[in-house]
């Protein structure tokens, strides 16, 4: 488990993270969401030690990361896999060389053991046989998968992924989301994903924290999020027309007016206005 207490981070006189407390659930996909500039990346970078917070504590399995020496932090970092924006693959290295890199850095495995491990993770991300390709020869989705393979090659306890879907089409985004979820479940990793992609939120959001101007505004899961009464969160999530429709459908299902098979025939014209409140009415209830 990763536990964050009173985390603060400023740059100059600008406060970016303003006292965040949160527990990131073990063995689950924890999503950090929020609009651009809300502090998602800064928060995550504090968690992995790329930024030094001004105050607050970060506990990895109850051990205070913020109070650790550099060497102790290195030990924790060995247990963290990271995939930051743009995949960050070394363009002059083959897929295999990219993936073996953490093994070279952090282990004393033999060449044979390393090759076996690289093949194992490449197979896990459905890139069997892509060992000798260079990043320039890969599609965006394949590059992400290489990034994921590299992030899990050391069998991490924690996995941090920043905007896994940036630059990908919706279908490929879905595949990457599923891969992240499968890997999280299979290896019981505590995964932290930074995203503004609402499809990802709905698909893999076991636990979600919504950041607003550097503060935790809401937390919950993907079942709860579309029924939240938090106005700021609603403005953020229902910017997507699709989700507004999905919420209306769920409300109709819950009242039993339409079956789960989405048999719209059961919905009569008269039912619709009472079952689907217009957005203005919802706002008044806040
Ligand atoms: N190294 C830095 N020095 C100064 N300011 C920074 C630094 N890194 C981030 N910031 C500022 O912190 C604020 C939050 O940035 P951050 O990248 O965390 O936002 P975000 O929520 O991840 O946004 P996006 O979704 O656009 O990636 C921004 O105003 C940004 O300019």
TrEMBL record:
Coiled coil: none annotated. It comes from the Bacteria. The lineage of its organism: Bacteria, Pseudomonadati, Bacteroidota, Chitinophagia, Chitinophagales. It comes from Flavisolibacter ginsenosidimutans. The keyword Transport applies. Residues 2-238 form the ABC transporter domain. The keyword Nucleotide-binding applies. Keywords: ATP-binding, Nucleotide-binding, Transport. GO terms for molecular function: ATP binding; ATP hydrolysis activity. This is ATP-binding cassette domain-containing protein. Residues 260-286 are annotated as: Disordered.
């Amino acid at each position: 488990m990763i536990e964050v207490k009173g985390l603060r981070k400023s740059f100059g006189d600008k406060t970016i993270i303003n006292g965040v407390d949160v527990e990131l659930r073990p063995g689950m996909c924890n999503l950090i969401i929020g609009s651009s500039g809300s502090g998602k990346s800064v928060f995550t970078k504090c968690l992995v030690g790329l930024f030094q917070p001004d105050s607050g504590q970060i506990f990895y399995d109850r051990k205070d990361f913020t109070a650790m020496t550099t060497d102790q932090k290195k030990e924790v970092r060995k247990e963290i896999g990271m995939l930051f924006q743009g995949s960050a693959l070394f363009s002059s290295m083959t897929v295999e060389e990219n993936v073996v890199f953490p093994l070279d850095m952090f282990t004393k495995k033999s060449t044979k053991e390393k090759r076996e491990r690289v093949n194992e993770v490449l197979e896990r991300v459905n890139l069997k046989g892509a060992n000798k390709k260079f990043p320039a020869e890969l599609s965006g989705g394949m590059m992400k998968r290489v990034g994921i393979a590299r992030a899990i090659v050391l069998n991490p306890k924690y996995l941090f992924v920043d905007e896994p879907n940036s630059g990908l089409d919706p279908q490929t985004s879905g595949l990457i989301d599923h891969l992240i979820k499968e890997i999280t479940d299979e290896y019981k990793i505590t995964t932290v994903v930074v995203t503004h992609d609402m499809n990802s939120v709905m698909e893999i959001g076991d636990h979600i924290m919504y950041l607003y101007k550097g503060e935790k505004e809401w937390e919950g899961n993907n079942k709860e999020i579309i029924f939240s009464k938090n106005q700021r969160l609603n403005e953020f999530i229902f910017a997507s027309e699709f989700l507004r429709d999905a919420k209306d459908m769920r409300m109709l299902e819950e009242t039993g007016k339409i079956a789960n098979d989405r048999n719209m025939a059961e919905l009569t014209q008269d039912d619709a206005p009472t079952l689907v409140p217009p957005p203005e009415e919802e706002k008044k209830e806040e």
